[in-house]
Design brief:
2 copies of one chain form a homodimer.
Chain A lengths: L16 H11 L6 H10 L8 H6 L12 H13 L3 E6 L2 E6 L7 E5 L5 E4 L2 H13 L3 E12 L1 H16 L1
Helix pairs in contact in A: 2-4
The structure holds a DNA duplex.
Amino acid sequence: MSIDQASLGSVEVSLTPQQRFEEYLQSRGLRHTDQRRYLVDLVFSRHEHFDADMLIDNLPRKGKPGYVSPATVYRTLKEFVDAGLLNSFQLDGRTVFEHDYGYPQHDHLYCTQCRKLVEFQSDALTELRDAVGAEHGFRVFEHRLIINGMCSDCVKSRRRTKRKQDLV
Amino acid sequence: MSIDQASLGSVEVSLTPQQRFEEYLQSRGLRHTDQRRYLVDLVFSRHEHFDADMLIDNLPRKGKPGYVSPATVYRTLKEFVDAGLLNSFQLDGRTVFEHDYGYPQHDHLYCTQCRKLVEFQSDALTELRDAVGAEHGFRVFEHRLIINGMCSDCVKSRRRTKRKQDLV
DNA sequence: TTGTATGCAAATAATTTGCACCAAA
DNA sequence: TTTGGTGCAAATTATTTGCATACAA
């Protein structure tokens, strides 16, 4: 799965993710540990969707400096979501995380062929969602939209493949 | 989780789910067994969202007539989706199934308080989705939208609750 | 000090799969 | 007959949790 780096620009924020998280921890009487510091840095070093497993794979191995146990990774990802640093959603059965802090609200186009995720923003969608909510007496908090299809690259390569097959 | 019975009406279909499934099975050289017949009937006896576990719980116990093993239930649910009888999506980590055959395309409002699912239809959404797809060079197949919020009942009861708390 | 956080390993939960046996077509 | 289907139990996968120890405040 891949995503263009910061394809939607960013949102003005006064604190770095690290500072923001520290603030969150202090406000709750939680502790700022090396593991948490390390994971904030790693997670915000690239604007990319990832799951717990990918994150664990990118960590130093047991014994090396910077190692964080899987259990702690899972626990910390939850903290990040609570703290508003990350968002998560389900994709093909996996829990996928993405940056929330400092990044605008958006939805996704998903290529079911190459599994590429493309972000997009639509104010019309937000309006539509609020209208639907109002119509049904809902107080709307948020929504999740995923559009499944085939990206232009895959449409092209599939066409090529088809032609080849047609020649047989 | 609950849902109004057939809240969106239905779509014209010439075959019953049972007949439609039989057609599907024949076209693929698969077999129409008692278990499959039994599950089609059970699944289409109520227009309600459900997961594998709920279905298994509603089956006769081991030894009783009509018993179907969990493994077969899981295998059969997949067949139903392949056959176009059911749709599935993720909700709170569970795989939720709903009727597809004979039922119009729709999306959901989800009350995060009482876990009620409400269906709604929006042509504007389909148009918006196609426009977004086109903008990004995607060939769109389908989409999945869930609007999270609080239904009117829960908004009311929460207000009541708040007042009670305020009195303390 | 005092209460959190972490690592490890065991426990869960939801499916999936291997296999021997059963049964549609 | 032949090939797909089913039940059962074991295997998977993704997490979560209990617990003893380590550490931030």
